[in-house]
Specification:
213 residues; 9 helices; binds adenosine-5'-diphosphate; single chain; binds magnesium ion
């Protein structure tokens, strides 16, 4: 099935993604204890609980839904990641123009989200942040956007690229944020925000795969 999602299905998609992050709270805490201050799990769980509640608000359009959820996340979650992930969804909302969440909209969401995050946080690829999962996902999704590509196909490709990017952060030295001060000692550990990004995209791909069956 290659048709896109309507507003109601997009709410459900985002709600499931928020719940997936919340379910992984302990894993995210552990990741941030390894190379940060340990607050990533708690901050993301709090932020995505507010995000999940926002998916039920009566927005008029898919862009408004993305923006509203991003804002709720940003306001509820402290730390750098509240701003970063809030910005991701707000940037995605600016770029999703259609009222159908289809393959093209997913590519626009990833590219717009990435641009907004980099604009705000100034992290480059290789700095060991969530950008190292998001950027490869956006690039792979764009490549997968061939004529007739379904949203589930594109999501699958994006999720795989995000997971590979997240795993590859083990080899990187942190150049930004709280982990920066640990320098070489961050090598061998996954970046917490990259893990959150991978969990979000994995959930989106799962939801779409199950819907397509
Ligand atoms: P804090 O660093 O304030 O304790 P968290 O622990 O919740 O916040 O989140 C840390 C994660 O946020 C990092 O693993 C990284 O992926 C992401 N992050 C931090 N700063 C930036 C930035 N400038 N750009 C992109 N991502 C960032
Ligand atoms: Mg932290």
């Amino acid at each position: 099935m290659s048709a896109g999602l309507d507003l109601s299905d997009t709410r459900a998609l985002l709600s499931a993604a928020a719940k997936a992050v919340i379910a992984n709270k302990d894993r995210l805490t552990k990741a941030d204890q390894d190379i940060g201050d340990g607050d990533h799990g708690v901050g993301m769980a709090r932020g995505f609980a507010a995000f999940d509640e926002a998916t039920a608000v009566q927005y008029d359009s898919i862009p408004d839904l993305f923006r509203g959820c991003g804002k709720a996340l940003m306001m509820a979650s402290g730390g750098a990641s509240g701003v970063v992930f809030g910005t991701l969804f707000q940037g995605a909302g600016k770029s999703v123009k259609s009222d159908v969440f289809d393959a093209e909209a997913l590519v626009h969401a990833l590219e717009g989200g990435l641009m907004a995050v980099q604009d705000r946080g100034k992290a480059n690829v290789g700095d060991k942040t969530m950008v190292d999962a998001l950027a490869p996902a956006a690039i792979a999704a764009r490549k997968a956007l061939v004529p007739g590509a379904s949203v589930e196909d594109v999501a699958e490709v994006a999720a795989k690229a995000a997971a590979a990017g997240m795993e590859a952060t083990r080899g990187l030295v942190a150049k930004i944020g709280k982990s920066k001060g640990l320098g070489e000692r961050t090598v061998g550990f996954v970046d917490p925000g990259a893990l959150t990004t991978s969990i979000l995209l994995e959930s989106i791909a799962d939801t779409l795969r199950n819907r397509a069956r």
